[in-house]
Amino acid sequence: MRLLFLAHGFPPVQHSGTFRSAAFAKYLPAEGIEPYVVCGAPETFSRVPEYVGGNDANGADAGRVLRLDWHLEANGVSMPGVTRAMLRLPALNTVARRKITNRRVAELCRGARSWIRDVQPDVILATSPPVEALVAADAMSQEHGVPFVCDLRDPWTHFPWARYRHYIDFLLERRFERDVLNRAAKVIANTRAASELLVDRVGVD
What we know:
6 strands, globular, alpha/beta, single chain, six-stranded parallel beta sheet
């Protein structure tokens, strides 16, 4: 089985989000699953240079790792003034953030599209955060007819440090989360509490 694996952080980048990704790449082949990794290039982590280590792909063959210009820009950076203004208002805040997310997702899909045709994966696995990985997996799944699996290392809308302008923004984002996750073939939660939250409060089937 060939698996297209979307993971923003991947060795040689070293932070808490990379260890789980590295473990997938290292141990899945023993189960007959060959991962092809799409991740952020080390230079896209320039704001946190201490995260960038050596050249070890940590279990994934170098020929199976595609490193893209996958920046996570801070809100308010490199965006039109109208979008920046929308970020300050309830409901429109969610619309503006969705536009930013969709722009990043489009860039990610564009970078990975030719690779998908070459690899012809049987399944897409995306690990989050960032949620762009999940949204991109959903988009590519619909475009290419390949099932996708969501791996949630942390909650999406219920992330402890998530900030919303208004409760309506939270509800809109939670509905978006529910729609994306319900299109997934499988959703992996890393704790029983996280699983119960997805079913009882987000509405994942």
